[in-house]
Specification:
Radius of gyration of chain C: 23 Å
Structural class of chain C: mainly alpha
Structural class of chain B: alpha/beta
CATH superfamily of the largest domain in chain B: Periplasmic binding protein-like II
Number of strands of chain B: 13
Helix content of chain C: over 70%
Distance between the termini of chain C: 22 Å
Strand content of chain C: under 5%
Strand content of chain B: 15-25%
Shape of chain C: flat
CATH architecture of the largest domain in chain B: 3-Layer(aba) Sandwich
Helix content of chain B: 25-40%
Chains: A mainly alpha (239), B alpha/beta (271), C mainly alpha (261)
Largest sheet of chain B: 6 strands, mixed
Number of domains of chain B: 2
Order of helices and strands of chain C: HHHHHHHHHHHH
Oligomer: heterotrimer
Distance between the termini of chain B: 28 Å
Strand order of the largest sheet of chain B: 1-5-2-6-13-7
Number of helices of chain C: 12
Largest sheet of chain C: none
Amino acid sequence: MFQSIDFSLLALTAPGWGGALLNGFLRSIQLAAGGYAVGIIIGILGASAKLYGGLVLRDLAEIYTMVIRAVPELVLMLLFYYVGTDLISRAAQAMGFTGFDIDGLLAGIIVIGLVQGGYATEVIRGAIKAVPHGQIEAAQAFGMSPVTVMRRVTIPAMTPHAMPGMANLWMIATKDTALLAVIGFSELTQVTRQAASATRAYFLFFLSAAALYLLLTLLSNVVLRWYETRARRGMIAAR
Amino acid sequence: MTPLRPIIIQKEDNMFRKTGLTVLLSLALTSPVLAETLNVGISAEPYPPFYVPDAAGAWSGWEIDLMTQLCDRLGAECVVTPIAWDGIIPALTTGKIDMIMGSMAITPARAEQIAFSDKYYAAPTGLMTQAGSEITPTPEGVTGAFIGAQSGSIQEVYANKYFADTAGAIRIYQNLDEELQDLASGRLDAVIGDSLAMQPFAQSDAGQACCEYKGAVQPDPEVLGYGIGAGLRQEDTDLMARVNTALADIRKDGAYQQITDRYFSIDIYGE
Amino acid sequence: MENPTLLRRMMMPHRLIMAAMALAGLVAIIATMQWDWLPAALPRLWQGLQVTLAMLAGSVVTGFMLALPLALFQVMGPSPLRWLSLGFCTVIRGTPLLLQLWLFYFGLGALFAQFPEIRESWAWPYLRQAWPYGFLALTLSFAAYQGEVMRGAFTGVPHGELEAARAVGMSPWLVFRRVWFPRALHRALPTLSGEIILQLKSTPLIATITVTDLYAVTTRIRQTTLLTYEPLLLLVAIYLCLSAILIVGLRWLENRIPTGR
């Protein structure tokens, strides 16, 4: 009863869908990488707000992470996608840029980044707290500005502590891009679905896409583990 | 498939708003005065024969051809922008797209949110069932049946209004293809959809083997609308006037018939 | 003891001002936005909520029961089983849940339908519906993630305790039942509530395969009312409440279970 599997559907050029799949894969990686980077920036800002910010800033950061951690990503993404791009284009119009519109890729990156930022804030906050306080105080005693302290001391010193959490976040970022398919973004999952329903070869395409995601995960694992050992050099091995 | 005209840009996806090609073209064709760029939204889910993507990511179909004609006459550069169907009206009102040409029916409810051009085609809504099924397109006729409808379609609203009490369940799908697939595999007893959009499946080998078209449902223009039109923001009245003029011209000078003949053997404009 | 301090913390001036601003914002949202659809939608929202909670509870319980053997095989199983469980966890954790859902529903579901034996069996009335596939995907996903947690918990139990149990003459089964499993469970408990919240956040994905959960109901409301923000904001509020209730409830449960520490 199994139809024989027609692997020619995966050919790289049309009418095969292989090329489209790889394009989608590339776009998923772009979205994940961009969103991850945005997430780290938000995370550093959020963690600073929570640790060093004033009372109001601290509470606002708390509310942000709470919402991100309590509401489904799919819902957050829909909300950010509509509210976020709407607000930005309205603000741009108010400032006199007419016809300003948000690049689709950018919108996706921002949406992923905002979700990632909530988790990154927690990871980085924990990592900064793990840095011995004396190191940071010493840097301050040298008269470094807060930004220099952050850049030259806190971030390098906390990186090994943040690595396991941040590695996990990267894995989440790659998988969260799939949710953008529900909004209609043309990334790997969406292309796979189009290919599958156009050819009725559901198993072939879904399994191929799964293999691509898995490949990305496994490769990332290797790279991240290597980086983690690198970042940990100079630290006492077992504590 | 007709060759693409330079004026319409086939976007691979909705993520690169300005591809290199778009930028190049807009520079080459229109500098120093920039042509108006219109992002035209269609559903990200294929809707044959009106719009379907091929493996290279290019969209083609009846409505894409009509869009090419329309943009040609508007002197605008149109960018095909696929958007999830159930978010397409918010995408228009929040400015992500400038026009909807995705087989959207003109209904009073939608007209409260967005403005519609004159209709450019009309098709009855009908019921497709398994071959030999006793289901008929009436509220009593669907008793106990699992009915599939597309999320955000007029058919979903219709099914909820007329079939919700009698049907076994109304299941909401993201696209018509998946509904028809589930009908063929027996997981649905009936699919409520646009009769023209279901036609390619009904005529395919798989469709003829499993299923049959049971005819149109009882009309209700309040829900099913007054034909298919282009959706625009309510404040874009100037563009609306130009679209309507262009559509009337296309209809009058034979271009409409020419496009229709490529895909259909019947008149799809309605009365 | 805790309540007065909590109250005092909430009474800090900046918090009072923020709360007032939030309240003003809420009033503005209610006043300026359109909410007339809400009363009529309440029964459907309630049904959707029930589906969401049923899927959550069902998949967490079944998934946890699956997680135990998955973890044990990885810790001490014979090597084919060990590799199988490891592979299963890696594949499930390495691919998006949405993709798994669609593979099960569209792939597996369509495959089942090709067999007349299945279509005529007692199982078909269930298999032709969507929720079993959603339940399967959610359960496997929870099992894989929780399996990983439990694996860590099992390996984390100090060897000395197990040796001590063996030294007093306990049988291997008794060691497992009385020492190893309870100690591992205690180690895993604090992460369990986090995993359950994550699972709650995964449930809306089943709406994409036609299960009418809370998210699907809201999507339908968005379709009929054609409103962009109001139903989404309501959904955010509902999920915030659900998460809060879950966190408080699970913490209460956690405190009731003696940790032996």
